[in-house]
């Protein structure tokens, strides 16, 4: 019968794959290439190295438990062998001629040895089991921490790369937990090898032909087990993109963040349908694997059964031909059964090691790829306070994107200035801010800090000098205070100041536990904030840091008019002696900036101060007049919000293109 074979070539990519199609045929050619390289033979040659690596993780996790796991298991294996030899010592006198009491008496010492050996083995196995059980959580803790150490240090680009995300998912989903399993299975391999050596020794002594016959009985089974394990692994690996999508859908179906819109936009049916469709594909794939595995196993067991029949036939022939006495044949039958069970254990544990090794290699592959994405060691020791930041000919495209988000940008920010970036949605303002903050590295051109290229600077040292009010700020599930101080030590005066400048003070006053209130409703006594209240907290976060350069990316998009006015005043006040890079669509608020850069499709199309830009009548003047007109023609204001901010607020609510 021809076994169904897995396609090695990736299916041609459809023009616009629907998410569920993405998982039906994996489009990740690199993975398939790697799979081709992880054939059973290739994996078997890699196994010793994988086992070695798993052991180094175990050794680092806990030396005593690692040594105990190996030592006690090996000792248990030795006692199994001793027991086996002792059993042959029991059988031989029993099968030889003579009166029964004498035969039993002759067998007694060996019988005592059997009992002793198996009792010792039981004790040793209990000890080994304890050591193994202790080792597992320790190894898992180590691999988990290693994974998160990498995920929190790698360059931000990694998170925009879907292939890397797949690798990370596989490592998190299962790979990181398999090191301990590789170790356990590898120990089983070792111990069963010890008992097989003993059984093989007994058989070799009894008759040389029995040994190769015995090997024949277990090889088909072993092959089938390894093949089945590989099938399951390949299928699971292929299903990774779909599983990630399912995971994301599941998150939307069961998360607080999406719960309101899910209901408001009656998304339930759509999401459940999508989830079901992907689950159906996954189920069909796994059922197909189960069917193929059954066929493979049946074939393996069938071939193994035939080989066993041949072995016993050979034994019978030897007996009939008088080449083997009955006593020896009886011992041989027992040794064959013992060896067979040890060999099955060996093959089972080999296949388990092989399967865990496949998943563990996902973890290793992630570690390798993530290590390549770690920032290079700093080459420059620039620690001086900011004098000037300059961008020259900066070109940057996000991973996998053909069109650069920034295309030859030059800007200058000098100490003490307020520099503004303006431009329409998608023009590249936030991208430029992220590059200046050292979160991404330009593909060409340079960004310098006091003349030193920031690409060579220590990223943490650079980030320590920059305060960032992010456009897409994070709502950390931490206390209100921690949401502002972040990793820094709390400094009461600075905290109060940042809260006052941003308006976060009013937010905290209204919280049940003040600064200690947990800002996450999912936890006991947790509180939630309104969009604008959260934005005040995010602004306070940027202002709290005693930074040379404050980057404020759309800090007022959700603020009420009074809070907006207060924040812009704070930013200008903050600039005294410091430096601010301000990104905003509220053009009235950038009038005071020392210099304004206007971006369009990733290029600086105009720059200068407000008067110059208005005089030259370009994009800035057009956008500014639009906002001013809207104010003039708009509904009368109900209260005085201050001259500057009032220009932008009505428009901000009416023109989606200019707000967020
Ligand atoms: N992580 C990303 N991966 C791929 N493309 C991205 C990513 N982030 C932004 N882009 C693209 O880069 C371009 C510039 O985006 P950017 O966020 O810098 O615009 P922006 O000027 O800040 O816009 P807005 O006013 O809406 O905040 C856009 O075309 C956007 O689609
Ligand atoms: Mg932006």
TrEMBL record:
GO molecular function term, any single one: ABC-type oligopeptide transporter activity
Keywords (A to Z) from UniProt: ATP-binding, Membrane, Nucleotide-binding, Transmembrane, Transmembrane helix
GO cellular component: plasma membrane
PROSITE patterns on file: ABC_TM1F, ABC_TRANSPORTER_2
Location (main, coarse): membrane
PANTHER family: ATP-BINDING CASSETTE SUB-FAMILY B MEMBER 10, MITOCHONDRIAL, ATP-DEPENDENT PERMEASE MDL1, MITOCHONDRIAL
Xref: Pfam families: ABC_tran (PF00005)
InterPro entries cross-referenced by the UniProt entry: AAA+_ATPase (IPR003593), ABC1_TM_dom (IPR011527), ABC1_TM_sf (IPR036640), ABC_transporter-like_ATP-bd (IPR003439), P-loop_NTPase (IPR027417), Type_1_exporter (IPR039421)
Protein name: ATP-binding cassette subfamily B protein/ATP-binding cassette subfamily C protein
Localisation per UniProt entry: Cell membrane
Residue ranges occupied by any ABC transmembrane type-1 domain in the UniProt entry: 67-355
Transmembrane segment boundaries: 70-91, 111-131, 179-203, 209-229, 312-336
Presence of the UniProt keyword Kinase in the record: no
Region span, Disordered: 1-22, 636-660
Compositional bias annotation for Basic residues: 1-11
């Amino acid at each position: 019968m021809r076994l169904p074979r897995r396609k090695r070539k990736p299916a041609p990519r459809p023009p616009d794959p629907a998410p569920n199609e993405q998982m039906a045929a994996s489009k990740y050619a690199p993975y398939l290439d790697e799979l081709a390289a992880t054939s059973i033979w290739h994996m078997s040659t890699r196994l010793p190295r994988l086992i070695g690596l798993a052991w180094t993780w175990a050794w680092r996790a806990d030396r005593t438990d690692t040594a105990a796991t190996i030592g006690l298991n090996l000792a248990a294996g030795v006692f199994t062998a001793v027991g086996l030899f002792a059993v042959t010592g029991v059988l031989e006198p029993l099968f030889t001629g003579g009166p029964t009491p004498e035969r039993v008496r002759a067998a007694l010492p060996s019988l005592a040895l059997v009992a002793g050996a198996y009792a010792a083995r039981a004790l040793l196995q209990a000890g080994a089991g304890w050591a193994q059980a202790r080792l597992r959580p320790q190894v898992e803790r180590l691999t988990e921490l290693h994974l998160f150490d990498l995920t929190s240090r790698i360059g931000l680009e990694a998170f925009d790369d879907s292939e890397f995300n797949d690798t990370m998912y596989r490592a998190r989903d299962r790979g990181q937990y398999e090191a301990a399993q590789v170790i356990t299975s590898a120990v089983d391999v070792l111990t069963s090898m010890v008992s097989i050596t003993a059984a093989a020794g007994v058989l070799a002594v009894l008759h040389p032909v029995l040994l190769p016959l015995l090997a024949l009985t277990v090889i088909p089974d072993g092959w089938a087990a390894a093949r089945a394990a590989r099938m399951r692994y390949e299928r699971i690996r292929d299903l990774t993109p779909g599983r990630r999508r399912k995971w994301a859908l599941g998150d939307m179906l069961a998360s607080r963040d999406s719960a309101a819109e899910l209901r408001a936009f009656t998304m339930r049916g759509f999401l459940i349908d999508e989830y079901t469709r992907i689950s159906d594909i996954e189920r069909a794939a796994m059922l197909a694997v189960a069917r193929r595995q059954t066929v493979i196993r049946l074939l393996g067991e069938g071939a193994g059964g035939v080989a066993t029949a041949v072995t016993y036939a050979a034994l019978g022939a030897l007996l009939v031909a008088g080449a083997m006495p009955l006593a020896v044949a009886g011992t041989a039958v027992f040794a064959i059964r013992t060896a067979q069970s040890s060999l099955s254990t060996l093959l089972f544990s080999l296949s388990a090691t092989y399967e865990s090794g496949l998943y563990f290699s996902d973890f290793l592959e992630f570690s390798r790829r993530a290590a390549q994405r770690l920032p290079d060691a700093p080459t420059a020791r620039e620690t001086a306070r900011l004098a000037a930041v300059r961008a020259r000919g900066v070109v940057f495209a996000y991973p996998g994107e053909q069109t650069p988000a920034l295309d030859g940008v030059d800007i200058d920010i000098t100490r003490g200035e307020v520099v503004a970036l303006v431009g329409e949605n998608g023009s590249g303002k936030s991208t430029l801010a992220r590059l200046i903050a050292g979160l991404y590295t330009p593909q060409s051109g340079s960004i310098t800090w006091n003349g030193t290229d920031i690409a060579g600077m220590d990223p943490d040292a650079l980030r320590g000098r920059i305060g960032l009010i992010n456009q897409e700020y994070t709502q950390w599930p931490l206390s209100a205070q921690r949401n502002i101080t972040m990793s820094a030590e709390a400094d009461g005066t600075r905290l109060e100041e940042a809260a006052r400048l941003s308006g976060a003070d009013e937010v905290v006053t209204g919280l049940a536990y003040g600064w200690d209130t947990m800002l996450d409703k999912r936890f006991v006594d947790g509180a939630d904030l309104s969009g604008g209240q959260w934005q005040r907290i995010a602004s306070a976060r940027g202002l709290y840091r005693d930074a040379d350069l404050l980057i404020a990316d759309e800090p007022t998009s959700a603020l009420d008019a009074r809070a907006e006015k207060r924040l812009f005043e704070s930013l200008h006040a903050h600039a005294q002696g410091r430096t601010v890079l301000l990104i905003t669509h509220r053009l009235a608020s950038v009038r005071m900036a020392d210099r304004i850069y206007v971006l369009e499709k990733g290029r600086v199309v105009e720059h200068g101060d407000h008067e110059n830009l208005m005089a030259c009548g370009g994009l800035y003047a057009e956008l500014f007049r639009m906002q001013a007109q809207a104010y003039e023609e708009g509904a009368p204001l109900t209260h005085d919000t201050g001259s500057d901010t009032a220009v932008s607020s009505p428009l901000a609510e009416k023109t989606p293109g200019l707000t967020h």
